[in-house]
Specification:
By secondary structure, this protein is an all-alpha fold. The protein is built from six helices and no strands. It is elongated, with a radius of gyration of 18 Å. The termini are far apart. The N terminus is likely disordered.
C-alpha cells in the first residue's frame, strides 16, 4: 500500500513541482504563455499586497514592525531579476495582460525602470530591518515612486 501511495504522490507532485518551478523562475517563454502570464500576474499581485501591508502599517499609531519587515523582504525579493517575468512573446500578442507593448519596443527604458526598482527595494528592506519608522516611510515613498514610474509607461490599467 505504501508503494501505491508513493507512486501516486510522485505522479501528482512531480508535475505540480515542475509548474511551481516554472512559475517562480521563468527564464524563457514556456510552451504555454498563458501560464507565464498568470504567474507574472500572481507575482505582481503578491508584490502589491506587500506594498499595502507596509502602507497600512506605517499609517497606524503602532506599526507592526514584524509585518513591515516581512513585507519589505517580499518587495526586495520581487525586485531581483525583474526582466525574467517579461520574455519576448509574453506581451499582449499572447493574450490578456496588463503589460504594455512598450516593455518590448522600448527595452532600454524598461530596463532603466526595473533597475530603479531594483536599487530602491533593498533600501526599503534595510529600513524595515532597522525598525526606524521614519526611515521606512521615506524608503517606502522612494520605492513607490519607482513602481509608479514603471506603471505609467509599461502597465495598462486593470479592467
Amino acid at each position: 500500500m505504501n508503494r501505491v501511495r508513493s507512486a501516486l504522490a510522485a505522479a501528482v507532485l512531480i508535475p505540480a513541482l515542475a509548474l511551481v518551478a516554472q512559475a517562480s523562475e521563468p527564464t524563457t517563454v514556456p510552451s504555454n504563455v498563458k501560464e507565464l502570464q498568470k504567474a507574472r500576474h500572481d507575482h505582481y499581485h503578491k508584490l502589491g499586497d506587500s506594498f499595502k501591508v507596509i502602507r497600512d502599517q506605517t499609517k497606524g499609531d503602532k506599526p507592526d514592525l514584524a509585518a513591515i519587515k516581512t513585507a519589505a523582504k517580499v518587495v526586495n525579493d520581487a525586485s531581483i531579476n525583474q526582466e525574467k517575468w517579461f520574455p519576448a512573446g509574453s506581451g499582449p500578442e499572447a493574450g490578456k495582460t496588463q503589460s504594455l507593448p512598450a516593455i518590448w519596443s522600448k527595452p532600454d527604458e524598461f530596463k532603466a525602470a526595473i533597475k530603479a526598482f531594483g536599487e530602491a527595494a533593498p533600501k526599503l528592506q534595510a529600513a524595515a530591518n532597522s525598525g526606524d519608522v521614519g526611515a521606512i516611510k521615506a524608503a517606502f515613498g522612494d520605492t513607490g515612486k519607482t513602481c509608479k514610474g514603471c506603471h505609467e509607461k509599461f502597465r495598462a490599467e486593470e479592467h
